[in-house]
UniProtKB/TrEMBL annotation:
Biased composition (Basic and acidic residues): 187-196
Transmembrane segments: 6-25
Recorded superkingdom: Bacteria
Alphabetical list of InterPro entries matching this protein: LemA-like_dom_sf (IPR023353)
Protein's name in the database: LemA family protein
Keywords: Membrane, Transmembrane, Transmembrane helix
Biased composition (Acidic residues): 162-177
SUPFAM superfamilies the UniProt entry points to: LemA-like
Annotated region (Disordered), positions in chain: 162-196
Family annotation (Gene3D superfamilies): LemA-like domain (1.20.1440.20)
Protein source organism: Jatrophihabitans telluris
């Protein structure tokens, strides 16, 4: 027969385990909700970037060559297609179109360049937030206890969204100061005698 001390210890262990499982389950639910929210934000920023490119391509009075404008419109429409099965490929194609368009930036109105730059920057940020949420969720789900207890249920393991989202429109335009300049570090040869 078990003593009262062992019974109390068993009850305490059961309470601690229950609290730990409950905490982990709650955290896992929150991480999945964070992934869903980040994915929705990323989707909206990708749509915004494609719409900005389509707007530039179909802009009335555009000085872009007709063939280039048609190609840009086609790329943008492909990225905006709702039944897109291979979205990363479509987004990479759109990114390449943006890099090619950078050579014709002088033919675009300043407002269009600003819109493209802002939408490209927002995609970078949204993708970073999404991939961070995916990483945190996958890390928690990879632990032994959540796997053994199937705390994620039947939810699919979230996947990273990897595209080349570097933009030729990033950074300051010509004649505009860099809003985030890199700090200048002193080189050893720049030190004065007093500093030594």
């Amino acid at each position: 027969m078990l003593s009262v001390g062992w019974l109390i210890a068993a009850v305490l262990v059961a309470i601690v385990l229950t609290l730990w499982v409950s905490f982990t389950l709650t955290r896992l639910d929150r991480l999945h909700a964070r992934v869903d929210a980040a994915q929705a934000a990323l989707d909206s920023q990708l749509v915004r970037r494609a719409a900005a490119l389509q707007h530039v391509a179909e802009m009335p009075g555009s000085r872009l060559p007709r063939q280039q404008a048609d190609q840009l419109a086609e790329v943008a429409q492909h990225a905006l297609a709702p039944d897109q099965r291979d979205r990363p490929a479509a987004e990479n194609r759109l990114g390449r179109a943006l890099r090619e368009l950078a050579g014709s930036v002088a033919l675009l109105p300043a407002a269009a360049v600003e819109e493209l730059s802002e939408s490209a920057t927002r995609v970078v940020i949204a993708r970073r937030f999404y991939n961070d949420a995916v990483r945190d969720t996958r890390t928690l789900r990879a632990r032994r206890m959540p796997r053994m207890l199937h705390l994620a249920g039947y939810r699919e393991l979230p996947q990273y969204f990897d595209i080349d989202d570097s933009s030729p429109f990033d950074g300051p335009t010509e004649g505009e100061p860099d809003p985030f300049p890199l700090p200048v570090t002193a080189r050893p040869e720049d030190r004065t005698v007093e500093e030594e």
